[in-house]
Batch of 2 targets.
Target 1
Amino acid sequence: MWRYFPWLPVFDRANVVSLGEGFTPVIMMDKLAGPLGLDRLSLKDESLNPTGSFKARGMSMAISKAKELGIHRCIVPTAGNAGGAMSAYCARAGMEAIVVMPRHTPHAFKEECEKFGATLILEDGLISDCARRVAEMNRDGVYFDVSTLKEPYRLEGKKTLGYEIAEQFGWELPDVILYPTGGGTGLIGMWKAFKEMIAMGWIADKLPRMYCVQAENCQPILETWFGRQQNAQHYSGKATVASGLAVPNPMGEALIIRVMRESGGWPVSVSENEILSASNEIARQEGLLIAPEGGALLAALKHLVHNGSVQGSEQILLLNTGSGYKYLD
Ligand SMILES: Cc1ncc(COP(=O)(O)O)c(C=O)c1O
């Protein structure tokens, strides 16, 4: 992702903390596309990043900037992948890392943090409970709080997704992007990248419809979108097999909703059974063992096809955010 260095907020290349993140492949999914009547269905496979998820982009950026700012201690609440990624980049940068994660998170997410030398704290509940614990622990501000959207740099790393998609699609963006939405950083980051590229004259002013995919067990954005609550501040969600989607009170809610409004997309939610069966279908049909968060995208796409919201001729991209290997237990 550091090929986009001039558009990222690190000033000195010597401060870049990299493990080879980014430029993940876009893979055609013809076997799944056929029965759905779609001509062009592809998946960008972010599971091939260091530590197995797209969180590597944000953390490579945030830890690089932390290094540039002379920071030595970082703390993060996480649904799993962000904690593993932060631990790895902190190890590489020689920084202390504290990760606060829900106790029910699958084993691999916990063990990788410890292997990278981070201090792991387990909390009952969801990421919102972990965030409260982080705020308590960091009252005196000793740690750099790398919580989603509480610092500006992870978003800049996620932004590289948008640049890459444009480059990989020959500077003509897909018609439709489905994104598994927890805190929404990837979605907001891609949209920022698209706007920057329009401003620089790199791409035309024709942007994809952005669909936020959520789990029925935790669908705060959908509840707000359909007017069943004013905002997600007091939404209480349940755990889901797609653990990255269990973000009941996303801080970037207003930005997520703005991206969907501007793009012409909307939120779609799917059940636990749909998530599991779509993940298995992708593995059996296309040979990709992706995260349940990515599986949720196929389940949501089926809804959009069946209700006529996407057309067979459209270029459709599923943004798979993580690896299925971490969820095997
Ligand atoms: C695999 C996976 N997908 C999606 C998400 C949600 O990402 P965001 O918070 O950027 O919406 C996460 C977050 O933990 C994740 O780990």
Note: The pocket of pyridoxal-5'-phosphate is lined by residues 53, 79-82, 148, 180-186, 244, 291, 293, 321-322 (CB under 6 Å).
Target 2
Amino acid sequence: MPESMPSACRVCGGVEGARHPVGDGDHAWHCDRCGWRVGDAPDADLPTPRVSVVYYLRYAQRVKIGTSATPRARLAAIRHEELLAFEQGGRDLEQQRHRQFAALREGGEWFTLAAPLVDHIESLRTGRDPWATYDRWLGDALRARSS
Ligand SMILES: [Zn+2]
């Protein structure tokens, strides 16, 4: 069961976690949201890891398929009604999706929300908030770098 942690997670700002053994009989808090070991590195001056994603943003019956390494800032600048999903990847994956769904293209990066795009987005959805999934990838990237 997640509990309130003594300090917020420095990766994602999460406030709930669980204590897990970390060897030598010690325990450490692990953020429930992104999996980061709270209270450990990163140093304040360690650069935040970047995880590039392809995003699927819905506005009415259209979906914008784009990519960003800083999705929080990027999505804040795009008018949309709903973030449908994220997929880990950059420009290559974005271009691949644009080709894959070319028949649905309305112009620019906007596509009609219809099959087979609906099915693809459905396959990416995990039942969690896409931002929780993104924060988990950030935590994974940090752990990979610090090990
Ligand atoms: Zn976290």
Note: Residues 3-40 form one domain.
